[in-house]
Design a protein that fits this description.
One of its GO terms (molecular function) is structural constituent of ribosome. By secondary structure, the chain is of the alpha/beta class. The protein has 2 domains: 113 residues, no CATH class; 97 residues, 2-Layer Sandwich (Ribosomal protein S3 C-terminal domain). The chain is 32% helix and 22% strand. It has a 4-stranded antiparallel sheet with strand order 5-4-7-6, with helices on one face. Strands 1-3-2 form a 3-stranded parallel sheet, with no helix packed on it. The longest helix is centred in the middle third of the chain and has 22 residues. The two termini are 20 Å apart.
Length: 222
């Protein structure tokens, strides 16, 4: 699949002016103008200049979900199904985009194949949602229930563990609670263990949060 990259490099606040006039494609099944805008902003959002190297998301599922105002690809956990006819159209569209950008840049374009992980895959992004909800209610179980639903659907996550410590649910006595699912190795320094921690300030005090995510590796058969 290529090297992994942080999905945070895709910024939705970038506004770019296209240096050429958009012309619709002859094929009505492909919205050429709309797709070209999405693709152009994606390339300019990634921190690579047009004169050196361009980075492109090769997966057709991700390419089809990108929106030129908000990157909906960051919000989708389940990739949509792409049929053969749609895949042929997307491949044809990519060739047109490649030729267009080559003419504009005046140089040969090198495509670096990357893999963008899911949004829920990163613990620090989950913490952002947790902090907002815990500041309002200080109740973590309804939030964890929603996150667990998404984590169980992701095939490359084998197991996870959550730890919450502090005055939970507005209790006067501080306590620590664990939520664990499936496989979690005892040796936490392995490469396939993602660990993050954060704390949030509530009316009753600080609540500490820790997350362990066990990801699938090539050695895992099941």
């Amino acid at each position: 699949m290529g090297q992994k990259t942080n999905p945070l490099i895709l910024r939705c606040n970038t506004v770019n002016i296209l240096p050429y006039v958009l012309t619709p494609n002859k094929d009505k099944n492909i919205n050429f103008s709309y797709s070209l805008i999405k693709y152009y902003i994606l390339l300019n959002t990634i921190k690579n200049t047009l004169n050196t190297r361009l980075t492109k998301v090769v997966e057709t599922q991700l390419f089809d979900c990108i929106n030129f105002t908000i990157f909906n690809v960051m919000l989708h956990n389940n990739k949509p199904k792409i049929y053969k006819t749609q895949k042929k159209e997307l491949i044809h569209l990519k060739q047109i985009l490649h030729n267009k950008l080559s003419i504009i840049n005046g140089k040969a374009i090198f495509f670096n194949f990357i893999y963008i992980p899911e949004l829920i895959y990163l613990g620090n992004l989950m913490f952002g949602q947790m902090q907002i909800n815990l500041k309002k209610t200080a109740r973590y179980k309804p939030l964890i229930y929603k996150i667990e639903k998404k984590l169980k659907k992701i095939p490359f996550i084998l197991g996870y563990k959550f730890e919450f410590s502090g005055r939970l649910n507005y209790n006067d006595i501080a306590k620590t609670e664990f939520i664990k699912y499936n496989k979690m190795p005892l040796h936490t320094f392995e490469e396939n263990i993602l660990y993050n921690y954060r704390y949030v300030t509530t009316k009753k005090g600080c609540i500490g949060m820790k997350i362990w995510l066990c990801t699938r590796t090539k050695s895992d058969k099941n």
